[in-house]
């Protein structure tokens, strides 16, 4: 018997973590993950052959980020996520709030800009197209907090509390498109806040923290709304297969708890990354000032001392 309209059978046994982690690849995401790892590895190898360094930590972050996508989309977590709201919510939280952070810490855009060859004069290659995209008006719009924060919030409320979610769950392309949307919304939300890559919108560190905390509470509110509901909120999960042996409201309550608890995890990770970046930014600025002082004989300090001396002279 078909449950979701795209080949998901209803004879799944009761969920256990072991069953959920069994390999069950979605071809689209399997190919996408392998392609992402392959392209990133090509970029790192190209830099190394040229004698340029690339931080190992960035490679590790990116690889783990891709593996988190594979974890929720290429295992039976994806199968159970079609019929269990709680498992789907794990998928949503990981792919929209954990995977983007790890991928961004891998600095894939910076790697691409350094690894891709420069096109000849008068011609346009992949590197030039990427630069054009980074400086486009479109990119300025989709990375601005006036867009990213409402989109981040709408991905919860406008999706789950309207018929749109049931429509997307009714077909395989719709489900894949929804998961890609979760990933992309997470990327554009976290990129201006803590991404290593260059971008059109890069506010100061205090403003970045404010942007982070402007979006996170809505995940908690969404989770609480699910936990307090006395009836199924999403039609797609209102009639789970009997073989699962689950209670609909209990499963929905668990989904709400996951959404509420998961909002804390990225906040901590992003704050750690922000503090680390802020510290290193201050260190680099101090080094630049020291070098400038060495070059000009510390004229800035001399000018300040002369200013103090003039103030004392006026006082006398």
Short description:
The protein has about 325 residues and is mostly helical.
Q: How would you portray this structure in words?
A:
The chain is mainly alpha-helical and 316 residues long. 72% of the residues lie in helices and 0% in strands. The chain is built from 15 helices and no strands. Helix 5 packs parallel to helix 13, helix 11 (172-194) runs antiparallel to helix 12 (205-228) and helix 12 (205-228) runs antiparallel to helix 13 (248-262). The protein is globular. Mean pLDDT is 85; it is low at 1-5.
Helix fraction? Answer: over 70%
Major beta sheet summary: none
Termini separation comes to: 96 Å
Strand content: under 5%
By DSSP, the count of extended strands is 0
Shape: globular
Radius of gyration: 25 Å
Run of helices and strands: HHHHHHHHHHHHHHH
What's the tally of helices?
Answer: 15
Structural class: mainly alpha
- Unreliable stretches: 1-5
Mean pLDDT level:
85
């Amino acid at each position: 018997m078909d449950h979701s309209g795209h080949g998901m059978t209803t004879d799944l046994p009761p969920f256990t973590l072991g069953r959920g982690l069994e390999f069950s690849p979605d071809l689209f995401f399997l190919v996408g993950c392998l392609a992402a790892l392959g392209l990133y590895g090509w970029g790192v190898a190209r830099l190394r052959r040229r004698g340029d360094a690339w931080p190992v930590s960035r490679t590790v972050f990116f690889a783990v980020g891709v593996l988190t996508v594979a974890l929720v989309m290429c295992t039976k977590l994806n199968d159970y996520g079609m019929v269990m709201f709680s498992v789907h919510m794990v998928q949503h939280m990981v792919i929209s709030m954990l995977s983007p952070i790890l991928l961004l810490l891998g600095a894939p855009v910076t790697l691409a800009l350094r690894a891709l060859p420069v096109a000849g004069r008068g011609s346009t290659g992949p590197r030039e197209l990427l630069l054009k995209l980074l400086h486009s008006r479109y990119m300025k719009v989709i990375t601005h907090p006036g867009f990213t924060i409402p989109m981040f919030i709408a991905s919860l409320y406008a999706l789950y509390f309207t018929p749109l979610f049931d429509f997307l769950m009714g077909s395989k392309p719709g489900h894949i498109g929804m998961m890609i949307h979760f990933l992309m919304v997470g990327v554009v939300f976290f990129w201006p806040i803590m991404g290593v890559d260059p971008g059109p919108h890069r506010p100061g560190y205090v403003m970045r923290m404010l942007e982070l905390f402007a979006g996170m509470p809505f995940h908690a509110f969404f989770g609480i709304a699910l936990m307090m509901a006395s009836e199924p909120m999403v039609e797609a999960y209102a009639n789970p297969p009997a073989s699962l042996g689950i209670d609909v409201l209990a499963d929905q309550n668990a989904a709400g708890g996951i959404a509420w608890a998961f909002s804390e995890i990225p906040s901590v990770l992003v704050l750690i990354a922000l503090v680390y970046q802020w510290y290193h930014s201050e260190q680099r600025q101090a080094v630049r000032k020291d070098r400038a002082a060495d070059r000009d004989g510390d004229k800035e300090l001399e000018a300040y001392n002369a200013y103090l001396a003039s103030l004392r002279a006026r006082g006398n």
